[in-house]
Amino acid sequence: MSAPGEPGGAGAGPGAAAEAGAGAGAAVAADAGAVVLRASVLGALRHGFSTRLGGVSVGRYASLNLSAGWGDEADAVAENRRRLAAAIGYAPERLCTVKQVHGTDVVDAEAPPELPTDDDGRPQADAVLTVARGRALGVYTADCVPVLLAHPRSGAVCAVHAGWRGAAAGIVTRAALTLAARAGAAPGELVAALGPSIGPCCFEVGREVVAAFAQRHGEVLERPGKPGSAGNPRLDLWRAVALDLERAGLAARSIGAAGDAAVPPCTMCEPARFFSYRRDGRAIGQQLSVIVSPD
User: Fold this and answer.
1) How many domains are contained in the chain?
2) At residue 71, what are phi and psi to the nearest 5 degrees?
3) Is the peptide bond preceding residue 293 cis, with omega within 30 degrees of 0?
4) Mind listing the pLDDT tens digit for each residue in 164-214?
């Protein structure tokens, strides 16, 4: 699991308007209890960005917590995972995740692990891809930016966990280029969607972090905070992720957001819909963003 105290998000969706604010969007499904968001840019590919709604967990984990790593009851997490799988349309045993470490490694779900693994045999990485059929890939977040990538023609897919450290180090660009290479495709043939994550309205960082992103992108990504908020800089990680996707070769029109709004929902702004590490600290639930390759 990740340590999601870092966040993130995207195109005429997020690529063009990350400063426009978060929106709920209408692309929502509540199958089998689990409430998930979709992104039309991913087309007919099965996918979903979970919310915290439609599960069985209680207390700080209420209710659709998908993470077993922060103290929730194992039976509740298992039922929540079953509900999410039913909502998106995959067999739970076909889901592949990684041990997220805020780095830049990308792994193939079908290849033997070459990186260090956790006790469950998951490699330490922040993106996982597949060109195999019928495989579900997922990343856990509670503020970081989940990015789902796909090459629609071949069905190759990738799930990316982008906290600010990974984003600053290039995980998003690297994942997109790696997926394109494995699919035998030009990067411009890929599509991507950003999921619920902390927005520039809430993501306070140090000046050195803003400076690092400005140097990487040649663009100042600091945004004003909410009225009455402290004077710390706010980083637009959604815009940073979109710029990295465009740097890899994706067209702005091929970059969308969960719920089909201009930008993803901000996890910190919406306690009723999303878990947020920045807002609530540890011992909370996590969202899970999943994309499934065609059968």
Assistant:
1) 1
2) 105, 0
3) no
4) 999 999 999 999 999 999 999 999 999 999 999 999 999 999 999 999 999
Q: Is the residue at 240 inside a domain?
A: yes
In a domain, 3, yes or no: no
Q: Under a CB-based contact definition with an 8 Å cutoff, are residues 125 and 268 in contact?
A: no
59 neighbors 68 (Cβ within 8 angstroms): no
Q: Give the dihedral sign, CA 122/130/174/140.
A: negative
User: pTM score > 0.85 for this model?
Assistant: yes
DSSP 36-90: EE--GGGTTS-EEEE-S-S----GGG-S----SSSS--HHHHHHHHHHHHHHHT-
Look up residue 228 and give its two tokens.
């009455």
Q: Has residue 6 been placed in a domain?
A: no
pLDDT tens figures, 222-261: 987 666 666 789 999 999 999 999 999 999 999 999 999 9
